[in-house]
Amino acid sequence: MTRVLAFDVNETLLDLTALDRPFEELFGSAASRAQWFSQMLQLSFIGGITGSYVDFTAAQRAALHMIAQREGSSLNREQVDATVTLMNSLPPHPEVPAALARLAATPLHMVALTNSVQDVAEEQLRNAGIRHVFHRVMSADALRRLKPAPEPYLAVATAFNVHPGDVRLIAAHSWDVTGALQAGCKAAFLQRPGAVLSPIGPRPDIVAGNLEELADLVIARDVR
Length: 224
Hints:
Elements: E1 4-7, H1 20-27, H2 31-50, H3 56-70, H4 77-85, H5 96-104, E2 109-114, H6 118-127, E3 136-139, H7 150-159, E4 167-171, H8 174-182, E5 186-190, E6 206-208, H9 211-222
Parallel strand pairs: 1-2, 1-4, 2-3, 4-5, 5-6
Helix pairs in contact: 2-3, 5-9
Pfam families: Hydrolase
InterPro entries: 2-HAD, HAD-like_sf, HAD-SF_hydro_IA, HAD_sf, PGP-like_dom2, S-2-haloacid_dehalogenase
Family: Belongs to the HAD-like hydrolase superfamily. S-2-haloalkanoic acid dehalogenase family.
C-alpha cells in the first residue's frame, strides 16, 4: 500500500528551460544548458561510484567550467556563481502547483527527495511557491549518497516509518525511477519532453505525460 509520495525536484517539478537564455548568453546556444545538466549528473555519479563524493552544487560549478572549456572559452567566478544561483529560482512547470495541491489533499504523505543540497532545495521550493505542500524536504546530500543509490529512497521509508514498498517515487528521470525500483520502492515516471525510460531497466506501473495526468493515476491506484 502506498503511504508516501517522494518527488524528485529538478526537471520533475521545476522547469530548467528557464535557464536556456542565460546559457545562450554564456555559450551562444541554449543547447548548452542540457549539456551542462548532463555533465553535472555525470560528475555526481562518478563521485558516488568511485567513493569520492561530490555534492550537487560543486558538480554544477565544475560542469560549467567543463562546458566552457569544450566551447573554447572560460568563465570567471562571478559568472559561475550567478549561473549556479539561478537554480534557486526556477519556476514550476505550469501544471505542478495544482497537481501537487490535489495530491496533498489525499492521506498520502508528501516529501521532496532531491540530490540538491538542503538549503538550495528549501529555497527552490519556497521560490516556486510549492514548499507548503510537502511534509518534509529530504536531501540525499545528508547521506553523502546521491540518488540513484538506494540509501536516499530507503531514508524516506525510515523517516516515515514505513516499508520501502509503501513509498512511491515520482520522477522525470529514468535513472531515478530505476534507483527507486531497485531499492524496493514503487515509482511513477513523468515523461517530460525528451525523457524516456530505459529499455533494460525495471518498469514502473505508472507513466504519464504531465503531473496532472500522473496525479489522476496515483489517486486512482494509491488512495484508498
